[in-house]
Amino acid sequence: MRHHLRHFIHRHEPKGALHAHLKSGIGAVIGMVSVGALAVATGIPLLIAPFGATAVLIFGQPKSPLAQPANVIGGYLLAAMIGALAVFFFPGLWWVAAIAVGLAIAGMLALRITHPPAGAVPLVAFGSHLGGLTLFAVVLLGGILLVAIAVVHHLVPPRHQYPLRAE
Q1: 164: helix, strand or coil
Q2: Closest to 143 measured CA to CA, from 54, 83, 37
Q3: 76 by DSSP, 3-state: which?
Q4: Which site in 57, 69, 85, 167 is 20 to 30 Å from 118, CA atoms measured?
Q5: DSSP assignment, residue 68?
């Protein structure tokens, strides 16, 4: 039994340097302050959750395919479009939010722009008071803002290549 549990608790991430971890945390704070102000200004505090998960990826795992700008921005835009359309055509039907999340995931996978935090955007769409275009604009601006901060952040030593270079 203990042998089988080992697979669940083994850590696959390599060890890193403390100063690099602190740098990632500082980048996340700067990014979250920026998008947090955006979320408060628009009255959509629920956006903090998916943007916070994005911060984990772009500041903590910048080499992950899921953290690349096309994935962040494209995933958010697709999920916002699906969420906004779902709310427009089926307002108040909670179970449609679940379908919208599934459609967003399938669409991101098909387009190769998978960004896991974007999967929460259809839920935010159902939980917010803003119309589709406003949600779309806020999600776009937030994604661009986080990516821009990450690009500058990863130029500071210890440097990380972000975004990854196209081959």
Answers
A1: coil
A2: 54
A3: helix
A4: 167
A5: S
